[in-house]
Amino acid sequence: MLPPGPRMSRAEQTARWIARPGPFLFNAYREFGDVFTIRIGTEPPWAVLAHPDAVREVFTGDAAALHAGKANLVLLPFLGSSSVLLLDGPAHLRQRKLMLPPFHGKRMAGYEEDVRRIAREHIAAWPRDGALKLAPRLQAITLDVVLRVIFGVREHDAALDELRTRLQRMMNGMMGGASFLALLTLGPRRSDELGVYRPILRPVDKLLLEQIEARRADPGDDVLSLLLAARHEDGSPMTDRELRDELVTLLVAGHETTATALAWTVERLIRTDGGWDRLRAGGDEYAEAAGKEALRLRPVLPVVLRHLQRDMTIAGHDLPAGTVVAPCIQLVHRRPDVYPDPTRFLPERFLGPEPQGGTYTWIPFGGGVRRCIGAAFAMMELRIILAEMAAALELAPARPEMEPTARRTITLVPARGAEVLVS
Question: Are strands 324-327 and 411-414 parallel, antiparallel or unpaired?
Fold first, then answer.
């Protein structure tokens, strides 16, 4: 039997989820507690989980019964069926095994200087006086990181500008309000079958396949070259289709989300007494702590989703097969029993010998066998770009009031684009 939840109609719940997901979730939590059911669009019922113990049950549970790929189906029209985000079971583990090596150990350290150089180039070109919307400029930095570090596009390659333009157009088309409306109306499978997004994807796919061929002929130390060298257990390489789907996955999962996390971190720091000065004095360590605290307080995604393949008991509730269980990042991150004074922005939570935030209490990248492959890469980017901004810029809020949250398809972004005054 499903746990209780809001009694309003499915249509009203959907409208509140789209317009103001935070208040919708917190109101339900206050009324129903750590587990409640919501009904969104054409989705199966969601059992929302707000307690770390329930999060642990999901993240350590049987992956064969808790399908993340099926729960991520909303991304099918964009990412393609070979994306590691949309696979489940042995297929997911095989693809994940191929994707992991470029994002760990010495490989990660090798990318740091590239990220630092790209950030400096962009920041040096920003205007130095007056108001500025940071969000699009941070997106430009993280897009260049994807193009140069992940795709391996050379700095003076003639394809660089065209890829930038087409990828930005694709992301705007995917993340715009009309796109979200089409997904809600048609559903992801129907949208994919009808080719709703094909006009914005086809030009990008052509350029990506050209880059795959270029790296195959002239490999480098970028992520794409490593993926080209990777082999399945039977010795076969990834197909062009697999490579295309994974490159788009890395773009969607690692470009917009990292830029949003950066925007929220700056938005919070400049409204915290002495925050920007502490960032400048604290270097990379404080920058990482500030990023973690911003991801706690302003997570880019509100929930993690798993689709139950069989009846399961979670958080003491017997849930039927077909239910979606939703560990709620927003609710877990604001529990006063885990984070005292939870609405306060306090990067110091993540400094010191026993920093706050554990495996099941700080979950902006999900968890278990489905934890985001690029989590360490994203935190490295965030740390370096913040430190470079602090070294070069003096920032202040463009307005005294904090920025409200707006929805950009499935992500939660600063509504005014992270407005700042640069001096």
Answer: unpaired
Q: Tell which residue, 340, 304, 342, has the closest CA to residue 324.
A: 304
How do beta strands 46-49 and 324-327 pair? parallel
- CB-based contact 304:327 (threshold 8 Å): yes
Phi, psi (5° rounding) for residue 365?
A: -105, 20
**Whole-angstrom Cα Rg for the chain:** 21
List pLDDT tens digits, range 193-242.
877 778 888 888 998 999 999 999 999 889 999 999 999 999 999 999 99
Helices (H), 20-105: 21-32, 52-59, 68-71, 76-79, 89-99
The CA distance from 7 to 122, in Å, is 49
Q: How many CB atoms lie within 10 A of CB 56?
A: 17
Helix, strand and coil content of the chain, in percent to the nearest 5, comes to 55, 10, 35
Segment among 41-50, 75-84, 191-200 with least mean pLDDT: 191-200
